[in-house]
Amino acid sequence: MRKDEGEGKIFLYDQPWSYQIIEGEKVTNSFENAKVRLRYYIKGLYQNSEPPYPGAVSSKEQCPRNFLPNFFPARSTEELELFAVSGRGTDRNVLGACDEHSAKSTILKIVLLCRKTQRVHELDIWGPYPNVPNTDFIEILNSFSCKN
Fold it and tell me: Is the dihedral of CA 56, 60, 66, 67 positive or negative?
């Protein structure tokens, strides 16, 4: 693991949440690329699809609205640019849970550009499956800053 990457634990709602930071390329356009990758990843996970055996239960497989991911408004300041999405995760801490049975974690995926260093960071935060209000996630996102 490189010095500028990391993982560990933080506490939210008096429960441990894990995080992983992945250092990106030192190129401004990699922020846009990372946003596009995240959008396609989410679209691929949650788009409606044909079931393997149509007709028996349903003719379409789709995720109920309350399990769809939440995209947060992009945040842009002189210091940083930030893009984030939250959703329900499986027991493997990956997005894609579409029912109460498979929802085992809450995941917040963040792409962050520090303007001064021109470094792009991708941050995954995952924790227990509480119903975390979006206002709490927005408060967390607004607390981010870049250090040199």
Answer: positive
Q: For the whole model, what pTM was predicted? A: 0.75
Say which amino acid occupies 72: F
Q: And the tokens for 94?
A: 């990956």
Could you tell me the two tokens for 139?
């408060």
Which domains does the chain show, CATH number per domain? 6-44+62-142 (3.40.1000)
Mind listing the pLDDT tens digit for each residue in 75-103? 899 999 999 999 998 888 888 898 889 99
